[in-house]
Amino acid sequence: MGAQESLPGPGSVPEMHHYYSKFMRECPSGQLSLHEFKKLLGLQGLDPQGDLYIKRVFDIFDLNQDGFIDFLEFIAAINLVIRGKIDQKLKWYFKLYDADGNGCIDKKELLSIFTAIQAINGHTDMSAEEFTSMVFQKIDVNNDGELTLEEFISGVERDEDLMDLITKSFDLSNVLKVIQTGRRNSI
């Protein structure tokens, strides 16, 4: 599938072994629970907002919704974060925001997830309220106070600043760095 596939990455066999041995070392049962996921990322003891966000990320990675992330789900998540095309990532972000799963994002959902992300990342140039207003102002074309997946993707793809902001705010590569280097917190 093009020159891109020849890059060493999560798709290559040695890389797969690397992730597999790391995954099995961190998670001998082969099933990563939410508790283990937080421990692996050093994210225990977050405030309720932060906890909510990590649970949403976990639930989206848990493709079969059995309450665990298995190795295949883990690799799918890594592939998305490292090599996903921008529209795949935007679909993923949309899923993350759409807390009630009704196919639309409203202001409350966007506000709560952005607040949760701020609780984890800590750095941002604008408040969650400002962020939410700006997003809706820019991409809610029919002004109904809700964003559909189409509105979200085309709106973000159309606006470079917004794309940049969303990509930076929701960048999961820090999460991946932890997984790759296997941070162990001494308690």
Automatic annotation (TrEMBL):
Pfam families assigned to the protein according to its UniProt record, in alphabetical order: EF-hand_1, EF-hand_7
GO (cellular component) term, any one: photoreceptor outer segment
PANTHER family: CALCIUM BINDING PROTEINS, GUANYLYL CYCLASE-ACTIVATING PROTEIN 3
Keyword terms of this UniProt record: Calcium, Lipoprotein, Metal-binding, Myristate, Repeat
GO molecular function, one term: calcium ion binding
Transmembrane annotation, as ranges: none
Protein name: GUC1C protein
Matching SMART domains: EFh
Domain EF-hand: 49-84, 85-120, 127-162
Organism for this UniProt entry: Heliornis fulica (sungrebe)
InterPro entries reported for this sequence: EF-hand-dom_pair, EF_Hand_1_Ca_BS, EF_hand_dom, Recoverin
